[in-house]
Amino acid sequence: MCYMLSKQGHLSDRDGHWRPHLMFFVPHAEPASWGAGSQGSPVVAAFTDTSERLTVFLIPVAKWSDGTAAPMDEH
What we know:
Blueprint: E1 2-4, E2 21-27, E3 45-49, E4 54-60
Antiparallel strand pairs: 1-2, 2-4, 3-4
């Protein structure tokens, strides 16, 4: 599990900055079986890292690490 709650966070050169979120790393799994991207699911995204044989799930949270509210409509 990884907490990505800093306002200074940077996902990648392609994706840039994103809202605060939690990341869960699990052995390779089908994202849909965990509800990723499903209506009403807190798991808004997932990706598979085939070289590491992992699936990573991303769950946005409502506040930054400093306690201020985060916009929930970024990316």
